[in-house]
Amino acid sequence: MSKFIINGPAKLSGAIAVKGAKNSALKIIPAALLSRQKITINNLPNIEDVSRALELLEDLGGVIKRRNGACEIEINNLSKNELAPKFANKFRASIMFVGPLLARFGEVKFPHPGGCVIGAGTRPINLFLEGYKSLGAKITFKNGFYIIKTNQLKGCDYFFTTVSVTGTESLVMTAVLATGITILKNCAMEPEIVALADYLNRQGAKIKGAGTPTITITGVDKITAGEFNIIPDRIETGTFAIMAAATRSELTITKCNPAHIEALLTIFNKQGIEFTFGPDWIKILPAKNFLPYNIKTHEYPGFPTDLQSPFTVLMTQASGSSIIHETIYDRRLLFTDILSQMGADIIMCDPHRVVVNGPTKLSAKKITSLDIRAGIAVIIAALIAEGETEIDNIYQVDRGYEDIDGRLRSIGADIKRIGSLNL
Ligand code: EPU
């Protein structure tokens, strides 16, 4: 099993460029199923989850040409309409293939998707299933597989009782080829949803309102060829900003969109963490003493759950106590136990809330990556800590961050990978 060995404390410097957004790429790749024509995707991050998504598409009959940072996809005929468990079990976003397959081919069979164990039990897909049903599909469950069929999807009104990012994206993709008008209410508003809608609209779809709670989709007959540049990863952007502040480094983050992490930058301002920014860069200035801050994770544009773990590490260095309230997932604070082992003063109030008392010295330990975001968070903790930290299960980090060790070395971190990276 591959590991990272990190020697801290680190002082980072220079510039680090943000890669394309994982959670946009994982929707644009399956969206290619909606078209018979060639799709080109640029700024594609070279990460595990993207490789898994392309593998799954290839298994379905997609013809894929992958170059460094880009790929071309063409899907004329499917070789099957079943998501093989060996692929679908590996990542939650395999569910994103269901809507496009249903919309273009009328039938799809798939197992419950895998992915990070951060939600209640296996993360639910009830909203997706309800949505497909509302659009006129029939659903059965047999021998561990959902089977969804339709002769013709028809526009509908659907209200999300829980705001869901992938749920919104899935129903948008399913409704583009339905007859009539679909109105989705209480939608998620993440930038990745706007990017998906813009991309599909350029290919002939008629989607209005993406980025607001109500999205209206007028069905069209076909989706044409398209080219898409993946938007910068806002979670990577925020993570590097937090990493710089936590290590009290001066670091410039390039190829990013500062507007997408306004929640974090607003909090930095209140805490006294100084930064400057331009249209596509942010420079974090060496942090001195900074204030604690209570956060409550929220759908976009609120504080993202995907930045909660790195922010919790940052609060171990703040002058005072912060309450971290994770509202989206009930297992995303379990990693704080690792921070406590490293010397942090953290009290777990309940599965959704911890109190972090700072500032504390962190010390090196043998630790593990519990999920993608907890994985990067413990890397930040190791960069703060005195001594040599060993982190295993780094496959989790490779799922979401391209060449993280190489990129961190380029800004001055002492990080070594033991074992190889096989994407
Ligand atoms: N939910 C349901 N039923 C559903 C779907 C979701 O109850 O059918 C619940 C979930 O259990 C959760 C809440 O709705 O409590 C919100 O989850 P959401 O559906 O928005 O999450 P997601 O779409 O599965 C995406 C990202 C996550 C990110 C969340 C929240 C992708 C592939 N994943 O997940 O990213 O944390 O939105 O922003 O886009 C990550 O990148 O590490 C990651 C987990």
From TrEMBL:
UniProt-annotated binding residues for phosphoenolpyruvate: 22-23
SUPFAM superfamilies with a match to the protein in the record: EPT/RTPC-like
Q: Does the keyword Transferase apply?
A: yes
Tell me the GO molecular function terms.
UDP-N-acetylglucosamine 1-carboxyvinyltransferase activity
- Name the chemical reaction catalysed here: phosphoenolpyruvate + UDP-N-acetyl-alpha-D-glucosamine = UDP-N-acetyl-3-O-(1-carboxyvinyl)-alpha-D-glucosamine + phosphate
Query: Where is the PTM 2-(S-cysteinyl)pyruvic acid O-phosphothioketal found along the chain?
Result: 116
- Where does the sequence pass through the membrane? none
Query: What name has this protein been given in UniProt?
Result: UDP-N-acetylglucosamine 1-carboxyvinyltransferase
